[in-house]
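Annotated sample (chain length 860).
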Amino acid sequence: MTSRRRTHPRRFIVARSFKRRVAALCFAGASLGLAACDGSNLFTPGTGGGNNGGNNGGGSADAIAPQVQIQFPDSVGTSIAVADSVYVKARVSDNVEVDSVVFTGFALRGDPNLGTQTRVDRFVRKSVVLKGLPRGVVRDTTVQRYLLPTSDRVAERGVYVVVTAYDSMGVAGADTSRVNLGGPRVSLLAPLPPDTVFRGGSQFQARFQAVDSVDLIRSVRVRATGAFTFDSTLNFAVPRALLDTTLTVPIPNVQGSETLQLTTVSGANLQGVSRPVSLSITAPLPDTTAPRVTFDATIPARVEIDDSIRVSVQAVDENRVDSVGVTVLAIVRGATKLDTIAVMSRKVQATADSTYFGLSAVPLTGLDTLTLRLDVTAWATDPTGNCGASVSPNSSQAQPCARYAGARVSTVPGKLYTTFVARGLTVAPPNPGDLLADLLADGSRVYLSNFTRNRVEVLPLGGLAYGTPVRVGSQPWGLALGRTADSLYVANSGGTNISVIPLNTAVLAEAQDKRIFTQNERLFSVDFSPDSSESVNSVTLFDYSDRPQFIAQASNGLLVYSTAPTASAADGTVRIFDPRKTRSEIFTGYVDRHTPGKAIIVNADSAFSTPIKTVIVCPRKRFGDTATPACINGNPSFVSDSLTRMRSRPVNAFGGKWDTRLDIGADIEEVGLSDTTFVAASADRNFIAVGEGARQNARVPLFRSDVGGDSLVLVGDVRDLISNTAERVIGLGLNGDGSLGVARGSQAYYFNQSARLQGVVAAGSPTGGVAMHPGNLGYPGGSFRLSFVSGTDAKGPYVDVIDNFNFFRVKRVYTRDPAVGALVVAPRAGADAGAVTMRVYALTDHGVLALPITSADLVP
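Output written by the structure step:
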């Protein structure tokens, strides 16, 4: 080698190997197209300058060759994208002067032992003439150039980059490096000259781009060396074809020269290296200017004690932001001043941050309902310790900083936010977007029908996390406890069936062999002449939706459920399922029977009119029978009487009874119920109430269970309660023995066992359900004559405790969210405070609210 100084051992070995290969090329002679083979570093003299490369001088006046050291590319690991230029930087020196420098780049292909090796130019040759420059320059200088690619597009490894220097006598010296063509490309887009001078203590933005559409980019490493060290690698779990991003590089309080260079690695483990960029770091100036700060806070007007508040903060500084932070003071108004009850503070080493503060730091009992004031200050510091604060949202400020209780604040008061802390905790649905349709509770668990996911969610009493869900049928809606509380019935409104979940097992699951599959039930309307002839004008079939909605079980074992209207069946109905019958029944007990010329046929297989103006009714079979009963033909009164006698016959060996009826005077127009139809049961299951949800002047029929029998008996006058309320029902409840009920409309309407209105209570605007105190029995007597009614007023949503004997509000407990669904009462949980006597659970738009009720809430 002609170079006397060598700092790269690996390149030295490569060059020696290359020398042997060059010797083989020289031996092959001119047939390879090489002009000459002089020197040890693969250069071609005679074209670089210096009297035509020394031909005239013969090279005898100066026998010392120039020294060449390639500084970039500096290793065989450097990859250059095919068709991309290569950046070459080399230091050249000579004892007299360097006349010119030649840059070349080529590949050797073929086998020298077979005489097939050939040289292929991969980069366009470039010459630089130094003769005539100042003597100091031509003796020792650094030369850098980009070599443009040739038209060859083959990817290959070990492509030679040769820098040859000639002195004025034509004596040459050279250095060789190698690069790989093909693989990823990485480029620094900023900073670039002339924008490469920065002050110590500041920062700069390194913007770069990496590309590899074939093997994809796996990582990019950003390195800065010199006056300070910075080394950061971006790794990608999923490689990408293109990366264009910016990285902030902080500069310490230093000065000097800095070199910035990027390295990328592709999915094929090939490297790409960017051109190094030189930066100049000047001495930092004395910094007395504080950062300017901007912030924004998201603090809801109503919160629960486990909620969080969000504060986002950004800062800028003429040099660099060292950290940003937020301090929140929780305060309450005392007799004469504001008293701090908690200090919440957060600091991060960044220029921006979004911070969440939990109200758990505020000493609240969970039973408080109070207005809380939050004093918010955002602040930032720079590396020299200057601090600026902001107390006005969305406004850039640099207020002087102070310290309070160990936290940074402003010397002026912070931004004051007001939020109402409501009682209770809301448990969000198991998954975002889940629709919880109904809920109920027993002594240990709360059950919720998850309409979205076809399952029942189980929430332990007092818990904040759901247990293992129970898979049921399609679109579960209403829930009901069995009469002995050993089973849970689920109305699957997406089908025509009811799931049964035993509750006395260690692991809850639907009893699949007990799922109830309901049959299609129809009614027939009879229109006839109201005179003595009773000539039948028409018999019309009416079909209704069979999809269960709300459900309850009576004390005699009957399942009572409403059905949800559909697009093709606009009316819902009330159905009765009796396991001792072959079919369910559409319940019509609430329909008046005083309309002349009208009748309804119930529980018939078929019915139709005849040409002679009579009606034919074909009864359905009894449970256990195999023979089909004969049809009955006649005028409406004759057929009705015949069916009555038929129902009075003894039961068969299986307990089956005839149940087909023709109800004279009943009008089919009064059967249909508009959505939503609520079903409520007393705690002893002896009374069932139905509430019509989407109609003004809603009907609220009340039925008594025929204990030991198989029927429900209407009690009271349905129309009487309608005329005294004139409301649509959005909530319905019965007390323990059915002696008092409540229907929620614009007011709360209370009715007794005869469906007579007992009193009303104005309770704001209605939002959701109602419930009775579990000890509410024996109206008008009893010890716990209390009920719970949801609503909202000008101050927000609430649950009222109502005295339902004197009909006034005992207590209004405000909540964060309005109840929009069912309301149930459950026992107190084990972890509840001693003052808590029970819990009210309510469905809201954000999940299920658990609201503790204290003994003080129940006393006027």
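Annotation: The chain is about 5% helix and 45% strand.
Annotation: The longest helix spans residues 9-28.
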